[in-house]
Amino acid sequence: xxxxxxxxxxxxxxxxxxxxxxxxxxxxxxxxxxxxxxxxxxxxxxxxxxxxxxxxxxxxxxxxxxxxxxxxxxxxxxxxxxxxxxxxxxxxxxxxxxxxxxxxxxxxxxxxxxxxxxxxxxxxxxxxxxxxxxxxxxxxxxxxxxxxxxxxxxxxxxxxxxxxxxxxxxxxxxxxxxxxxxxxxxxxxxxxxxxxxxxxxxxxxxxxxxxxxxxxxxxxxxxxxxxxxxxxxxxxxxxxxxxxxxxxxxxxxxxxxxxxxxxxxxxxxxxxxxxxxxxxxxxxxxxxxxxxxxxxxxxxxxxxxxxxxxxxxxxxxxxxxxxxxxxxxxxxxxxxxxxxxxxxxxxxxxxxxxxxxxxxxxxxxxxxxxxxxxxxxxxxxxxxxxxxxxxxxxxxxxxxxxxxxxxxxxxxxxxxxxxxxxxxxxxxxxxxxxxxxxxxxxxxxxxxxxxxxxxxxxxxxxxxxxxxxxxxxxxxxxxxxxxxxxxxxxxxxxxxxxxxxxxxxxxxxxxxxxxxxxxxxxxxxxxxxxxxxxxxxxxxxxxxxxxxxxxxxxxxxxxxxxxxxxxxxxxxxxxx
Length: 576
Fold this sequence. Notes:
- With 576 residues, the protein is mainly α.
- Helix content is 69%, strand content 2%.
- A two-stranded parallel sheet has the order 1-6. Strands 2-5 form a two-stranded antiparallel ribbon. Strands 3-4 form a two-stranded antiparallel ribbon.
- It is a multi-pass membrane protein.
- Its main location: membrane.
- It is found in: Cell membrane.
């Protein structure tokens, strides 16, 4: 890879400085984030489009930008179907979950679990969220740091410490407003960098028709696979079903996503924020698909994996950028800073969300009831610092577990699957009780952990491997002549005892945890629900509320629903 020049370092410095200054402004000037509501919810006066874009930016991160194009390059453009899953996700959020969260006006969404079930279910779900977020934060920072290290010569750990330190700094002093507005700035950098690479890449390849023909000939557009086999790594149903449930957790049922939506004044604003989120995500996903196809168009006859020029999944995009644009001043630096913007957005959102969950769901019971807002703010900031440091230390373990995208998805599913299942029990199954939810989540967590450990052991021993699409090296020049080994059917040579594609697709892992939690939870609830009190209909999703037996709680009438869509409800709810 080409070396960094002074203007590349200048681009990095400017972006990091703007992010830090945003934190300084909201932490030391403006409202100064004096109260818990200001620090965690931005004072509940945020605008719709910044929230929607902020959720999107914190969601896709460098894991998506680097992992998705590499997946498309190696396995085909199945990722295109994620656009369908994203649209379904928006509908699920608006109609199933957000009406309940917004009406309850909770600070953390796990407070809902205490209202619906009990305290221990809330604490366990909070613990699983924290574990999953720490994993995602750790994985997301490693890949772009590795790429920057390759072009600068700076040790990867020094880069990680520097970027993590800046994220911890501006998140600690600035709270949610800093997170959101740095996300807006960083989203502009990300989208602009992706657009520039797409333009340069298409110009390098020739034109769109040439790119399309190359992708067709290489099998990268053979994506009309509607087989329902869940062990297929990629298929139509893998993304429409598995990907949708996977993303439902992050947007609709995780604190880092829902917290930002709850910072809005009305439910109508929340709906529009979801719309902005879906639009932003669709744009990013299409960019990722196009980048993957461009990379294949460039390396169709000289695969960098086969030739040994790159060894890791996530190195493809940075290597491709330096090949096609390394001679253009500032492009390499701007592209890499775009990757870091995506990573910093994920880190800051997660740290802010974790601080709220730890404080409200874990520590608040042990603190004095008359604790001042100033003391609470200090505790929140200390939690951010401690969490950031622990996430940095975890990187030393996760870097050895394989390709970044599957590791991130499957690793985080240890927590996301059980949490998704618990919320589904609460929202959609009125017969579910506290015992069922708690023990269902525990069984699912143990099961998911066992599956992940066994899977990684098998992959480490090469008992299970993924089959890539064919690669070619017929266009590679070695010692002044073309390579003699013109085509390789796979990117590896497999021994006789290798099992190919025999495990559940990583996109189904979250759904698997959901299914285990719901089945076990409903069985236990059926066996132990003799003395359960009636379920408050306000805690049940509107899509199933009509089927709930009448209790002593009145249903939401049309006047209250109307108020929910306006500032009238928000004002009344806060006064209560």
